[in-house]
Amino acid sequence: MADSLFTRIIRGEISCYKIYEDELTFAFLDINPKTPGHTLIVSKKQVDEFQDLPHEDYIALMQAVKKIALRQKEVLGAKRIGLQVIGVDVPHAHVHVFPFSSAEEYRQPPKAAPDEELAALAKKLAF
Hints:
This protein is of the alpha+beta class. The chain has helices at 5-10, 55-76, 103-107, 115-125; strands spanning 18-21, 25-29, 39-43, 80-84, 94-100. The protein has four helices and five strands, in the order αβββαββαα.
């Protein structure tokens, strides 16, 4: 399997707005967020579907998801945190985590965010 876009981001070949990294996971802001703070949490092990991750990597991914969600709630004052595992755009297991306050906001389509906004959010959310 060729390296995914996310593998290239993890290696530093493509820039991102990183907010968290540990031995098994990597988290960065989505450049086309549903809401400000929308983060992608990615397994460092490249597999297409999350259920194909080895148990240890799956647990690490979910622990990172919870850590990011709590951070979004704390720093951004989010009313709720949404999760989505879509798995069709990039063949690399990942979870979308984003703050929202209403059903309409949860369902809104993503849109490009300015670099200045992403950089400021990354500073606020970074661990």
